[in-house]
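#dry-run=false #mode=assembly
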Amino acid sequence: MSTPNPNILVYSPKQAKAYAQFIQDYGFTSVKYAESLEEAERYLPDTEIILGWKFPTKLLSQSISSSVRWFQSTGAGVDDLISDQSIPENIILTRIVDQFGAFISEYVFTYLLYIVKDVPRMRQSQIEHRWDSFISESLAGKTLGVAGIGSIGEEIVRKARAFNMNVYGLSFSEKNAQIVDCHFTSDKWREFVKELDYLVLTLPLTVDTYQVLNREMLLAMKQDSCLVNVGRGALIDETDLISVMQSGHLRAAVLDVFESEPLAKNHPFYSMPNVYVTSHLSGPSTVEGVSQFFIDNLNRYVNNQRLQGIVDRNRGY
Amino acid sequence: MSTPNPNILVYSPKQAKAYAQFIQDYGFTSVKYAESLEEAERYLPDTEIILGWKFPTKLLSQSISSSVRWFQSTGAGVDDLISDQSIPENIILTRIVDQFGAFISEYVFTYLLYIVKDVPRMRQSQIEHRWDSFISESLAGKTLGVAGIGSIGEEIVRKARAFNMNVYGLSFSEKNAQIVDCHFTSDKWREFVKELDYLVLTLPLTVDTYQVLNREMLLAMKQDSCLVNVGRGALIDETDLISVMQSGHLRAAVLDVFESEPLAKNHPFYSMPNVYVTSHLSGPSTVEGVSQFFIDNLNRYVNNQRLQGIVDRNRGY
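#status=ok
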């Protein structure tokens, strides 16, 4: 049985205060915020609910966290939380869902179009004051594969339809299987990737997806296909990707996520001509968006309704 | 009454032979091709039908053209033909319709996304090996205005829906008015432009649309709005656009067409920081696409059916 005004702790190294303000503005007045381990330790003993980003998870198994009932992550991916198996089972973990689809799908089509229309050639012609009328390719009729067709993948599929693309999908369950032209289960990766012009990864990182794009799978893709990763860096074996691309396989790789972030300053990806590196920005957790999701969930919590985005620890997301 | 195998002349300074081959492959065997005025003069006396690009229109009013019944342009815009008022009234003029929507709408969204997601910043960060996570804007919720909602504008509207944009439209007739959230007729330009985040011009060039985007209209647009021109260069007063943008008005202009093409090598547009110049390439006339349209129209012609894309010379397109 929840109280109508539960004790909430917001933890975020940079934006804790902004989140706390937003939540208080919605009438939940019992909010503390912490930006460091020490501050978290101070407030945890009375805390029932945590809204957290980069939270020091080891605190959750200590006695100071014994009153914590629910942990809401500010992100969609919770592999960092899941990997800490000491988090007590009685703490409900939730992640943000249905929030990043619009942003991430815009990012994906920004780069698909940038590459297919050959914007770099257009920009270079302008720099040289050169009239250079050429016929670029079209996305229409091309085949896009979306690995992971949850709320993010679903938005990518919807936009792909507007561009008259063929759309394939791979996922672990049959959910949403009907939205794609051809659905593959996770034991059919090779069959899935071999026909694609574009492969977009939106998968969570789990034991099943870790480095699923290894040398063998990358080589199973068409030589002139493009890979886009907006899921998690470790879905790809980065060493394999570098050597495969250096051998001339794949037309381009658009990478927003990396096994280790921030990407090291001397990482080869930065200088590879067909690799587009961005800084984990495709699906930004805005204070407003996350807070709104959290407030909705808070209202469910105080009314004893089922929360949105509950993480299945066995499944891994 | 048409013959089943009419005499056809293909005129194109560069691609006449390729067109002729395509047409012959479809069983219309009486095809000549010309790449110069002199060659055209040689073949015109027996010609009934012309498929032409950059055709020397003055020949059409001469006696050597007395057997010409139909002139099919290889493009969607026919302002160059219309402007020659000496073309005999008994020659039917047709233009390509329903062919460029996919290409041009891809071009439009390439640049809308390039600008809204701030790709230049992402590319620069990569060059500097710099991890630079920032929150870019989204097309979702923004208002796009499409001036000209024929077959090209219609495709732009369809894609804008997939990006959850609000869509306004301006056109001279009520045709397609129902596909936009708010429709304006051509006497309501100022009301149309003032709410827009993005204005895309797909209009034909006529006496009514010539330099319709002059200083006054450009200043009626929101200061941080973007202008995209995929119609005709002379829809815009280019001198006014330069001075208005130099004064800090408008966030960006994406220009694929110009009053004089090719754009002069020393034209200011090339070096203006927020002007994106491309070389009239957004809606390419491919030999295959144009030939296919022409073959369809040829079959209508020999069967005495109404042709597609008939130009109304009074209306101007």
